[in-house]
Amino acid sequence: MNDMTDMNVPVKAVPTLPDAQTVTSVKHWTDRLFSFRVTRPRSLRFRSGEFVMIGLMGDNGKPLLRAYSIASPSWDEELEFYSIKVQDGPLTSKLQHIEQGDEIILRPKPVGTLVHDALLPGKRIYFFATGTGFAPFASLLRDPETYERYDEVIITHTCREVAELAYGRELVENLADDPLIGDFVGDKLKYYPTTTREESPKMGRVTEKLKSGELFEDLGVPPIDPASDRAMVCGSIGLNNDLKEILEGFGLREGANSEPAEYVVEKAFVG
Ligand code: A2P
């Protein structure tokens, strides 16, 4: 190890906040979306799909925290988050300005329902995301367990505009060549992006595509069947409620950690 007593050697900033983690990189995807990576507490263990409370110190000296899905897989050395920017949002109006080397607060207590343990075994899993609801699936899609558990993995992502698909698209496109999990992914993964307010190859809400059966036709799969299909849903309250109704119409029942069933749902953070 190098001698660190030399005065010219830059000393790494010592975290000063309680539960402080250091930002290692930030990427802005659109004027409404960004992702960032932070150091991971050594003791933090989590299941892909779970969320933690993260935030910044408020002007009043109290932590301003919100629930954020961890977007990185559980094997990653760092933690990744994917966030909206709301110009007058209490947290994201400030959080959107973080830079490499800054500190954020992270409470290391992961929880959540979008976990494999909350679903009974099945053949095919659907991940339904809108907007930043892609985040928990960014974790699950990079988790080998997803491909060990299922023969087929379908990720749908509905956004208003094409540029808002970029984070998810890039992640999905890189999966097959990923040195760590590419072999697990193989040809099991199907990606179904749609936009609602800008022209793209597939336009419309995923809910409509499910009701009309267009989604099944496009993907070449049979309609959803509780005997074989499982689903996880993450989006706005409206999307979650509409999809719950549709999935229950196909005969799926909502599961939980304590009582696994055929689908699970969680609200994406929006403010
Ligand atoms: P739309 O443009 O038709 O509202 P938001 O940014 O408002 O959370 O929306 C993200 C994406 O989710 C948009 O494409 C939006 O479509 C879609 N969306 C919002 N609510 C629903 C819903 N209840 N069912 C299906 N899609 C929805």
Topology:
Blueprint: E1 20-28, E2 33-39, E3 51-57, E4 63-69, E5 78-84, H1 92-95, E6 103-111, E7 124-130, H2 135-140, H3 144-149, E8 152-159, H4 166-175, H5 182-185, E9 189-195, H6 206-212, H7 214-219, E10 229-235, H8 237-249, E11 263-267
Parallel strand pairs: 7-8, 7-10, 8-9, 10-11
Antiparallel strand pairs: 1-2, 1-6, 2-5, 3-4, 3-6
Residues 130-131, 158-160, 196-197, 205, 207, 236, 238-239, 242 line the site of adenosine-2'-5'-diphosphate (A2P).
Q: What labels would you give this structure?
A:
271 residues; alpha/beta; Elongation Factor Tu (Ef-tu), domain 3; Rossmann fold; 11 strands; binds adenosine-2'-5'-diphosphate
What does this structure look like?
The chain folds into two domains: 20-111, Translation factors (Elongation Factor Tu (Ef-tu), domain 3, Beta Barrel), CATH 2.40.30.10; 116-265, Rossmann fold (3-Layer(aba) Sandwich). Strand 1 (20-28) and strand 2 (33-39) form a beta hairpin. The chain contains eight helices and eleven strands. A six-stranded antiparallel β-sheet has the order 4-3-6-1-2-5. It is globular and about 55 Å long. Mean pLDDT is 93; it is low at 1-6. It has helices at 92-95, 135-140, 144-149, 166-175, 182-185, 206-212, 214-219, 237-249, and strands spanning 20-28, 33-39, 51-57, 63-69, 78-84, 103-111, 124-130, 152-159, 189-195, 229-235, 263-267. The chain is of the alpha/beta class and 271 residues long. Residues 130-131, 158-160, 196-197, 205, 207, 236, 238-239, 242 line the site of adenosine-2'-5'-diphosphate (A2P).
